[in-house]
Each structure stands twice: as structure tokens, then as C-alpha cells.
Amino acid sequence: MKNLFIPTLLAGLMASTAVFALPAAIKDKGEISAAIVPNYPPMDFKDPATNKLTGFDFDLGNALAERLGVKIKWQETGFEQMLSGLTTKRVDIVLSGMSDTAERQKSVTFIDYFTSGPQLYTLAKREEIKELTDLCGKKVGTSRRTTWPSEITAWSKEHCEAAGKPGIVVIGTEGSADARAQLQQNRLDAAMQGSETIPYLMSLDKGKYKPVGLAISKQFTGLGIEKSNTELVTAISETLQAMIDDGTYGKILKKWDLEQGAVEKITINAGQ
After folding, report:
1. Are residues 6 and 69 in the same domain?
2. pLDDT at 19 (0 to 100)
3. What is the pLDDT of residue 129?
4. 20: pLDDT confidence band, cut at 50, 70 and 90?
5. Which domain holds residue 21?
6. 126 and 193 share a domain?
7. Same domain, yes or no: 159 and 198
8. Which of 31-40, 177-186, 192-201 has the lowest mean pLDDT?
9. What is the pLDDT of residue 272?
10. Do 100 and 41 share a domain, yes or no?
């Protein structure tokens, strides 16, 4: 029994402390730079009490860097600058709740570490809106920077117009906060956010919002790396898989009540 137990124990310890080879440039400077847009709780945001970065991605990035044996340098940026920051090598990674899409894969490699989906919600007082088809002919807002406007349009054609109902009127907004503000001002009938954010939103303003149906599609959230940096892709993907296997990843998900978005296996460019 002892001969079997000791190797098994050692293997577990080695797996939990494994360090995968980083590119020399990152290893030499002792830090990895990460772009983040802290406006998407609970994935990425600033604690209102301290104005400091927090959220699932922040915790995951810190744990990842520690496992890799380097510090992480968070660089707050605008959404439009995240991918260009990779291609111009201003940052090493993007870790900010970004959806992995085929279009973005043209310039970036995505390590997929989370799943979510675009979900509609409205004000709780809108008793006439109970299911998704109740939004046919109504105004729905969502960030124009995402793929969601086109997804809402496609869903509307299939479920509203094909049934002889008026289509959803899609309103592009400056972001989720703008859509939510317009919803509160009754300029919109509903808005769309990632399914991972709606429970958090509802917990902040109890009784104010309600989800409408389920997410209309499934999306992978990816950690972005410049396409030619294959060594970094390997190091991070293998480290994240080790964090899944030893339970570190699951503990961070549980902290933010995001277990529903967990992946069991890290994939590369799985988004469509």
C-alpha cells in the first residue's frame, strides 16, 4: 500500500505545482501584462468601496500568474484597444470576458476558459413580458461592440417574423450600462447581457429586473494571445488545465457564483 500511495501523492503534488515553460521575454521581465476593461461584473469590475480591480477574471489572472511564477500587470484599456494591444505587443494577454469568435481568431488565438450566452432581461414591472416571443415588435438594446445585435436579429427572423409577427427592433448601445440606463428610462423594452452577469445584476437591485427566457446561444469566453506567440499559448493553456484538475479554477468560480459557466477541458479557438 505504501508503495502505491507515495507515488500517487507525489504525482498530485507535482500536478498542483507544475510550472509550464514561459517565453523567455516574459520570464526575464518577471511579469505578464494583461489588458482588462473593468465594466462587466462579476467578470471584471471595480469594487465600489475601494475602486480597486476585482472580479472572476482578475482572480483567475492573479492565480494564473502565481502558478506561472511571475507577477501580473493589469492594464486598463478600452474595449476597442484590447486586440490591437496584443498585435502591437503592448500587452501579452487579454483577460476580460471577451467572446471567442471566428472573426477575432483571424488575429488572435483564444484559450477558452468559460462559457456563457446572450440573455435578455427586462424590468420586473413589465408583467406583459413573460417569454422571449413577447418581445416580437419591441425595442431591445445591446452593445453594438458585440455580436449580439446580429444574434438578436437572427433569432427574431426565426421566431418572430417566420411566425408572422413583427420583428424585434434592435438598438445598438454604447455598452451594457448604456442599455440598462435606456431600459430604466423606458426607451427600451428589454436589454441583453451575458447570462453570467444577470444574477449579479439582480442581486444588486433586488426586485428591479427579471430574465426573459434562457440564453439564445452558447459562447466561449477566451483568454486572447497574439497568434504567433505559440509558446505562451501552450504555457497558459496547460496551466489553466492544471488549475481545473486540482480545483483552483472551481474555487474561483464558486466565489463569484459562476459555476454554471465552468469548462472541464481547456480548448483553443472553439468559438464560432
Report:
1. yes
2. 57
3. 98
4. confident
5. 2-116+218-268
6. yes
7. yes
8. 192-201
9. 84
10. yes
Res. 4: pLDDT tops 90: no
Q: How far is CA 181 from CA 42, 79, 178, 245, in A?
A: 18, 19, 5, 41
pTM value? 0.77
DSSP secondary structure of the chain: -HHHHHHHHHHHHHHHH--PPPPHHHHHHTEEEEEE---BTTTBEE-TTT--EESHHHHHHHHHHHHHTSEEEEEE--GGGHHHHHHTTS-SEE-SS-B--TTGGGTEEEEEEEEE-EEEEEETT-TT--SGGGGTTSEEEEETTSSHHHHHHHHHHHHTGGGTPPPPEEEEESSHHHHHHHHHTTS-SEEEEETTTHHHHHHHSTTTEEEESS-SS-EEEEEEEETT-HHHHHHHHHHHHHHHHTTHHHHHHHHTT-GGG--SS-EES---
Residues 49 and 22 in one domain: yes
Domain match, 138 and 89 both: no
Cell digits of residue 122:
427586462
Q: 174 and 43, same structural domain? A: no
- Give the residue among 32, 24, 21, 15 at the shortest CA–CA distance from 70: 32
| Closest CA relative to residue 73, chosen from 51, 49, 86, 91 | 91
Q: Do residues 143 and 179 make contact, with C-beta atoms less than 8 angstroms apart?
A: yes
CATH code at position 230: 3.40.190.10
Name the average pLDDT for the chain: 91
Domain co-membership, 163 together with 235 = no
Return the C-alpha torsion angle 153, 156, 161, 167, nearest 10. -70
Nearest-angstrom CA–CA distance, 32 and 146? 27
